[in-house]
Amino acid sequence: MPVSGQGKIGNYALSQDFIDDIMLTKTWEDYDKAALSSAGYTYVPDNTYTQKHFIEPSNQTTRSHKEYDVRYYYSAADFETGQTVTAIGIQDGQTLKSAPGITENLMKNKLDRDEAIKQGGTPGVGAQIFSVVSSLLLILGGFLLIIL
Which of 81, 90, 110, 139 could staple 97 via S-S, CB 3.0–4.6 A? Predict the structure, then answer.
């Protein structure tokens, strides 16, 4: 069951769809181990060399894993605290919503509009022209069928 938090960039809150579209490319491993321990959990790097890290109930770490044991895996975006980022989205009041057609709504560093759109993965001009032309041809074909 995926769980996500809240996000804010500058004075803008990120909508849930924006948060869901953020590329999660690394494993979160910056836990407060004392807080985990007081809650009965332990941080465990995976010893099968999958490069993943987990938290699990403390009583599971003292024995061999058994069926139905619980492990929580946390993925995170590859951003550092205080790093400058560029967000591409649709402003709705003080909320930033995900922009359709953009594959990466949040990118590292400060980018100008053109560079952000280029890195964000929007369809190229050729693809946009093709989609408009093909739509017009379909509409024209429909009109011809109705007339005939």
Answer: 90
